[in-house]
Amino acid sequence: MAKSDGKAPGWESREMKGGDWVERVEPGRKARAEKTVSVKMTEAELAEFDAQIATLGIRRNRALRIAARRIGGFVEADQAQVEALRDITRQLVGVARNINQIAKAANRTRDPEYRAFMEERAALGRELARVQGQTQAILDLAARREDGLARLARAAGA
Hints:
mainly alpha, 5% strand, two-stranded antiparallel sheet
C-alpha cells in the first residue's frame, strides 16, 4: 500500500546509485545483500513448474531459491535433515555423558568391571563414528554441490 507521499513503504531507506535503487547504508549498519534474478519461461514451462511446486506447497520464489541454494552447496534443511540434526544433538548429549563416565572409571585404580568398561568404550567409539558420518553427510559442501549440479544437468538434458 502506497503512503500519502506516493512512495511505496521501505523506499525511504533507498537511494538511486548508477541507475539502480540500492539500500541507503547508514553508519554502523550493513546493506542488504539481496539481488533480484529474473527467469523467462514459456507458458508450458511455467505451468509445469507451478504444477510441480504446488505438490510441495511452496511458492515460485521459494522453489527457485531452493534450487539456486542447492546448486551453490548451501544447506537447505528439509524435515529429514532437521530430524537428523536433532538426532545428532541427542547423540552428542549421550556422548558427553559417556565421556564423563569413562573419566570416572579411568580414575578408579582397581575396577572389577574393567571388561564392561572396555565394551562401553568400544560402543562409544562406534557411536561417535556413526554421528560423524551423519554430520559429514549433512555438512559436506562438495557432495551438496555435486547433487545440485547433477539435478540441474538431468533437468537440462530432459
